[in-house]
Amino acid sequence: MDHTQAPVLEALRRFQDQGELSFTPPGHKQARGADPEARAILGDAVYRSDLLASGGLDDRRMTGNVLKRAEELMADAVHAEHTFFTTCGSSLSVKAAMLAVAGPNEQLVVGRDVHKSVVSGLILAGIEPVWVDPQWDGEQRLAHAPAPEAFEEALERHPEAKGALVTSPTPYGSCTGLDRIAEILHARGLPLIVDEAWGAHLPFHPDLPSWAMDAGADVCVTSVHKMGSGLEQGSVFHLQGELIDPETLQSRADLFGTTSPSVLIYAGLDAWRRQMALQGEQLLDEALRLAAAVRGEIEKIPGLHVLGYDDLVGTGRGADFDPLPVVIDISALGTTGYRAADWLRREHRVAMHLADHRRISAQLTYADSAATTDPLLDALRDLADHAGELAAGVPDFVVPTGPEMRMEQVVRPRDAYFGPSEPVPVERATGRVSVEMITPYPPGIPAVLPGERLTEPVLDYLRTGLEAGMNLPDAADPELRTIRVRR
Ligand SMILES: Cc1ncc(COP(=O)(O)O)c(C=O)c1O
After folding, report:
1. Which of 47, 322, 399, 472 has the most CB within a 10 Å radius?
2. Which residue's alpha carbon is nearest to atom 9 within ligand 1?
3. Which residues line ligand 1 (CB under 6 A)?
4. Which residues contact 330 (CB under 8 A, 6 or more apart)?
5. What is the CATH number of domain 402-486?
6. pLDDT per residue over 368-404, tens digit each?
């Protein structure tokens, strides 16, 4: 296929050149009606490219196939059979993929380290999860994606399961053995869904971990705004093989999607595919070289350690790792990742991605260069110089071991979520069944799920974590004085 084409961008240009008059949404009418300050801050280009997909970008019945052609080019670029664009993030795509595999009261084998959007999918569809434990590194207190054998074992225990879902890479860059998991599923004639929200770039460089379609997955979901250069909310899902019907997948996505998709987001997806198809390897080559240099420099800073191959790969860990998320263990500074991240933003205007009890991470992409990583390194050196200040008065933070983090699922997520509930003081919640999802964010992996029986170690972790700076945006009581439980 001709990857110099970008059907969405080309259609946008045509629309703008023709000076068409719209008597349709959006009501700002190519910026004319927009708030003047918004025009000044966003720029009119944003409004001029914000138009209806059908009856704007394309004709009323989409006979120009603008979106379809852009999706076909994306599928070709990543060696998938079908690709679908969505404008509500991988949070939508992953739900569509799950519902294409399992329906109400059916079982799906799912890693317990999934993103909260997967749990929302379980609740909405009434799918029964068969949980597979991640691999826990007890020393680092870090979860890696579940091992292939754990999926095999779960499928043996639950032969009626309709398929499986695994997250790889994890937000920490750890990747599991996808080819082996795909084999295990396919030996039983079942499909594998991969939540590859963090892996948009993987198909475009041979030195990066292998990615879901090449590893044999049936459907995979990717956030192009995370490691690619799409606009926020730009997500795609890719499909191959005979186990999932493309029409079914499209129909499930339609259940969740908007009837007013953002053409801006489509344009970001289309342009990124062209950039990757034409220049991806070269751009990622430079990014990988930069990441190696930055990792080396951070390692020289006293008190900082960058998680690399030895920390992320091996028995009980991942099968491979992506070096672009630069995850830094700062525990030797005697402080928490939350404090360190807040300090870096306040003192240096440097925003880190993840922050947890002992780590921060800097996500590098091919958009970075020495112009961005030099100030990052200066800020990290200054962070180490301020270790004393950052360590003073750090609240006690009780981080459980992996097995202590796992609670028993005693009621299905949907039944607990929609069932009768009451708030109870957190000190009296042990032994009760949660109806809430409680999620440290980022990365957005729920610590508590609806239907799980609450335990002391997890409640202590959340309570003390909150005091230490953990962010729990979805808790019904953000201060966690109470928690909603099944009545
Ligand atoms: C593993 C994983 N899956 C899915 C999502 C949802 O992606 P999005 O933010 O594009 O909706 C995220 C978001 O952080 C994620 O980390």
Report:
1. 322
2. 89
3. 89-91, 94, 115, 117, 167, 171, 195, 197, 223, 235, 443-444
4. 303, 304, 337, 340, 358, 359, 360, 383
5. 3.90.100.10
6. 999 999 999 999 999 999 999 999 999 888 888 888 9
